[in-house]
């Protein structure tokens, strides 16, 4: 049976008709999706995210993908979440993204660059390890993962969303109105993404609505005039790292030699 996964996206940006991000979205119309996006909170979900991550990187960066066969320690960090998109139809994995804030430690990209003064002292969130399935629904999942990233930043008082993008994917972030952190669309080798050249780009959260409205952005309606209850971003207790620590501890006890 063929299912219709088409999602209509309306753009009704109207200057002067802004709703502050802090206000309730209860009056906005709802749009249901054929998938959910949640924050990973157990080992099974993390393994599903790792699987779709590895498959996505294998299509374009097979050498780097060989290092992504299992979870990374960064997935378990205190200031990090992993998002997982899953099909409502069969529970299959459709996409994933990792988001790290600088609440407790420097961002991954700061292994390779020193951020300029205008980002120093700001609350930042870096998205990495983005991967979606290679199909039409994968394109929609990618867009909604970006919305989930944005909403997470709004909820947690993040000043700037920061990403690194290789060519030609950097054009997608140009289209989303990200700006270059280092002028001139400079590509810089990034240690945390296989030392491949990437542009470092940033997106100011507080001015997003105004900037997208002024640009007549085609995704304005999706981002600001529609509720998506299937984006489930309540942060679970920080139990993911604890699960792995408990498992490793139990394994260590089983392997310990008898005295």
What does the model show?
With 259 residues, this protein is α+β, with helices and mostly antiparallel strands. It is 29% helix and 21% strand. Strands 1, 2, 3, 4, 5, 6, 7, 8 and 9 form a nine-stranded mixed sheet that branches. The chain is globular and about 45 Å long. Mean pLDDT is 85; it is low at 1-23.
Kindly report how far apart the N and C termini lie.
Answer: 62 Å
Strand portion: 15-25%
| Parts with pLDDT < 50 across at least 5 consecutive residues | 1-23
Shape: globular
Mean pLDDT: 85
Helix content: 25-40%
Kindly state the number of beta strands: 9
Going by helix content, strand content and strand pairing, the class is alpha+beta
Concise summary:
The chain is α+β, with helices and mostly antiparallel strands and 259 residues long. Helix content is 29%, strand content 21%.
